[in-house]
Design brief:
single chain, about 100 residues, mainly alpha
């Protein structure tokens, strides 16, 4: 199948050979309407009253932070106690 230009004054036409063998034009698919995305928890207005679970979660986070701080304090205390005991033993035995 060869494309030949017609000798029309505009020069834009195709020969009869091409038009008889051409495929029908492809039409664009119909567009589907999509609804806007639902609002997430972060996008809700700030004027709403907080849920009781939010307060419980915040309280548990604070409690966890306090427990972590106490644990770290005791760990540091044990480290220094062990270091002092090692220094005392070293002084007695003349390391």
């Amino acid at each position: 199948m060869t494309l030949k230009k017609n000798n029309t004054p505009s020069g834009k036409g195709l020969s009869k050979e091409q038009t008889s063998h051409s495929q029908p034009p492809i039409l664009p698919e119909s567009t589907k309407l999509e609804s806007p995305p639902a609002e997430s928890h972060c996008e809700e207005s700030e004027n709403q009253k907080k849920h009781w679970l939010d307060y419980v979660t915040f309280g548990m986070e604070l409690f966890g932070l306090v427990v972590l701080a106490v644990y770290a304090g005791y760990t540091i205390k044990i480290y220094y106690a062990n270091q002092q005991a090692a220094d005392a033993r070293c002084r007695q035995n003349r390391c």
